[in-house]
Amino acid sequence: MSLVFNEDQLMLQESARSFCREQAPVAVLRNMRDTKDALGFPKSLWQSMVDLGWAGMAIPEVYGGFEFGYSGLGIVLEETGRTLVPTPLVSTILLSATAINLAGSDAQKTTLLPAIAAGESIVAFALEEGAFHNPAHVSLSAVKTAEGYELNGVKKFVLDAAAADHFVVVARSSGYAGDTNGISLFLLDSKTPGILVQPLSMVDSRSAANVSFDKVNVPAGALLGIEGAGWPALERTLDIGRIGLSAEMLGSIQEVFERTVEYLKQRTQFGVQIGAFQALQHRAALMYSEIELCKSLVRKALSELDRGDDAQDIPALASMCKAKLCEVSALISNEGVQMHGGIGMTDEFDLGFFLKRARVAQQMLGDVLFHRDRYASLRGF
Amino acid sequence: MTDLDSFREDTRAWLEENCPASMRTPAAEDEVVWGGRNAVYKHPDSRIWLDRMAAKGWTCPTWPAEYGGGGLDKAQSLILAEEMQRIGARPPLMSFGISMLGPVLLEMATHEQKLEHIPKIVRGEIRWCQGYSEPGAGSDLAGLGTKAILDGDHYLINGSKIWTSYADKADWIFCLVRTDFEVPKHSGISFILFDMQTPGVSTKPIKLISGNSVFCETFFDDVRVPARNVIGSLNDGWTIAKRLLQHERTMISGFGLSSGRNSRGGLGGSLEQTAMTYRGDTDKLSDPVLRDQIAQFKIDSEAFAFTSQRSAQEAKLSKGPNATSSMLKNYGCELNKRRFELLLQAAGTQALGWESLTADASDFAPEELSVAREWLRSKGNSIEGGTYEVQLNVIAKRVLGLPDMTTMLVKQ
Questions:
Q1: Predicted local distance difference test score (pLDDT) of residue B324
Q2: N or C: fewer beta carbons within 10 Å in chain B?
Q3: Per the CB < 8 Å rule, is A273 touching B330?
């Protein structure tokens, strides 16, 4: 299996990079923060990305996608991580579209996947209920009614909820929080009565909200997959999300690292470029080595996903990616600020945006401790 | 069927017929075949296995057939490696000739020099050692002082080397010597080969903290070496020395690869199984901190293995080992060191025995004793082949393009 990009992939990387540099630099995120944008991402910018085919990369052709594969989507995510461009790629493409594709009925797929691929639909993924990623710890209840189900409970930190026309909701139809049995997925219209979206202001300036479900009645057709047996599809969806998010983080750490090395070559103190000092050189060399490991992990996981039904070891690969990227993301974002000195502490300089995004991305879909623990269990110790 | 498919079929059949069953298990440390005039074949089948593989040139599969190598292309050699791995076949021969000297000779030596030395490396007839470090030239290797003075058609060599791995067991040495004393230090070095039986060569093993003596001091006292034994151009030895170091780093980084593998455990199983066994745990390691550290270590090991793969694929696209060799060397060595530190934590005082004082080894089992010795040995990983710190310098300057303070100091 090749861990080196082929020609098509190199071309995609080149075009995604120049698009992000020119159309979606960090200034876009800064502007959204300063204007307190309610939607969470610039709609016209997202439409341009959709026109480039980014929304449909991992969606099957029969449902309006392009099947360019996860390696391709990973390349795009990496480039969006380099400029911190806010997009619904994680919420809608990596998580919701994947869950619909894995668990949905033909009718559900036909209704939503082509709309997602065409940029006409934003689907938020409502999973977390506490301050930490804990996917089995679901207590939002789904009780059977004559027409379908009634949902009651609260979801936290739902990405892009403000812009969403639909939600994928992870609910409990039986058992207790912590059980993997009894988890059911639902796909419902965000305007269904009883849903209240409370926007959050997060440190990374990206869109998230708490969403409460108060006697929300949905028809039986809103069930995504089989009642009580949603866990396998949820796990695979989350693993794909973790790998994709790792790709985004990989882009961010490379960008911070490259900017930092550039600064070490420019900044002069004691009459020399500070990059000549061994105390900084060795730390830079160590960061470089860690980034190389991150690259290999992300490429390996993405190309394994592209093997479809033959893919092996995805849960462990996803946890390896996320654990390692969390660790290195903390290292690089901290060292980036430190090596830039005072200028790295200023809001005017972009570096702070990377530090803030790093911490949110680290928590999202499981932090380093969560994934080392999961990896150890998967490897039998 | 493609050519590669039929190559795979033929290779599989040949291995099936020619690899003795006893050679399809991992070799114990003292069963590894190093070749040479005084080669030791602890397992009798290992000689048969070596001779059969050497006859096909498959000890060095990609080396040209005209010098005794296998003449395989990269795809074929990959298939050979896969087929050997499939049946668990041991490497028939391990040597510095294969991993370090040979690639450099193929690249830089004359046809006559290749004809003289390469076939003997392939067949394991000559065991080589590396004469690089000196008492006064370690990290500053180019500061070496061993002199070679031309005397007719011979050089007269005087000086000494240190940390020469297995010098006491080697037949020939590839050696860095100073041949010009008037020029800057990097410009006056030559790369020369000579027989360790030449009068004036002597070796003295150095006892290490592990109790073993893999390294030697090597002394040269008026050693006469034919001038034609210089490889490459006179005074251009530093170029060859650096090239060879890249191959050496690639070899040493392999320590990290094997240290991540589940099968290789100091104590009858993987690191995590060892930790569980010594704590009486059955399905989950009871110490959460150690469990987290082992998970981190294993994730790094797996990521490192993917990185080695990627680097090999990238090297194929360009040519030869690239700048990542310093990174791989460092990471591999650190992984190996971490592994042994974790193994000590995994097995507690049972991994800290020095020798057994009971007839039935009821105090310390042999594999427990070997953990302590290997742990001590691993400390050398980040010193040999260019220290950890020197590799970081190389990465900073060659890969990241950061300015070089040492040249600034020289200029001032």
A1: 80
A2: C
A3: no
Mean pLDDT confidence for B212-232: 96
What average pLDDT score do residues A244-256 get?
98
Q: Does any CB of chain B come closer than 8 Å to the CB of residue A377?
A: yes
Cβ <8 Å between B408 and A376: no
- Asked whether residue B324 falls in the same domain as residue B376, the answer is yes
Q: Is the ipTM of this complex over 0.85?
A: yes
Q: Would residue A277 be called left, alpha or beta, if left means φ above 0 and alpha means ψ between -120 and 50 degrees?
A: beta
For all residues of chain B together, what is the average pLDDT?
92
The enclosing domain of A148 has a CATH number of: 2.40.110.10
Residue A355, H or E segment? helix A351-363
Residue B134 falls in the annotated catalytic set: no
Residues B396 and B278 in one domain: yes
Judged by a CB distance cut-off of 8 A, whether residue B298 touches chain A is yes
* Nearest residue in chain B measured CA to CA from A282: B392
Q: What is the distance between the alpha carbons of residues B165 and B96, in angstroms, rounded to a whole number?
A: 10
Catalytic option among B134, B248, B368, B384: B248
Same domain, A56 and A144: no
What CATH number is attached to the domain comprising B88? 1.10.540.10
Q: At B250, is the pLDDT very low, low, confident or very high (cuts 50, 70, 90)?
A: confident
Least confident interval from A172-181, A258-267, B176-185, B379-388: B379-388
The domain total for chain A is 3
- Please check whether residues B262 and B401 belong to one and the same domain: yes
Pick the closest to residue A97 from A121, A133, A128 (CA basis): A121
Distances (CA, A) of A200 to A35, A208, B56, B86, B352: 15, 6, 69, 55, 55
Chain centroid to Cα B399, Å, comes to 23
Task: Compare A163 and B312 and report the one with higher pLDDT.
Answer: A163
Q: Are residues A335 and A224 in the same domain?
A: no
A320 touches chain B (CB under 8 A): yes
Same structural domain, A150 and A247 = no
Name the residue with higher pLDDT: B74 or A249: A249
Range of the domain at A31: 7-117
Are the Cβ atoms of B408 and A277 closer than 8 angstroms?
no
Does the beta-carbon distance from A376 to B285 stay under 8 Å? yes
Q: How far is A375 from chain B (nearest CA, A)?
A: 7
Cβ contacts from A onto B, under 8 A? 128
- The Cβ-side half-sphere exposure at B2, using a 13 Å CA radius, reads 5
CB-based contact, A358 to chain B, within 8 Å: no
B392 touches chain A (CB under 8 A): yes
Q: Does A293 touch chain B (CB under 8 A)?
A: yes
Of residues A124, A160, A126, the one with CA closest to residue A41? A160
Query: Which domain CATH number covers A362?
Result: 1.20.140.10
Q: Is the dihedral of CA A351, A356, A360, A362 positive or negative?
A: positive
Least confident of A31-40, A93-102, A195-204: A31-40
Q: Are residues B97 and B180 in the same domain?
A: no
**Co-location of B134 and B229 in the same domain:** yes
Res. A9: pLDDT tops 50: yes
B287 → chain A, closest CA residue = A381
The answer to whether the CB atoms of B292 and A376 lie below 8 A apart is: yes
Q: Domain containing B364 — which CATH number?
A: 1.20.140.10
Residue A99 has pLDDT above 90, yes or no: yes
Question: In terms of CA atoms, which chain A residue is nearest residue B288?
Answer: A373
Residue B264 has pLDDT above 90, yes or no: no
Between B283, B299, B396, which is nearest A324 by CB? B299
Listed in order, strand segments (DSSP E) in B114-166 are 128-131, 147-151, 154-165
Q: pLDDT digit string (tens) for B78-100?
A: 899 989 989 999 999 999 999 99
Nearest to A282 among B300, B392, B399 (CB): B392
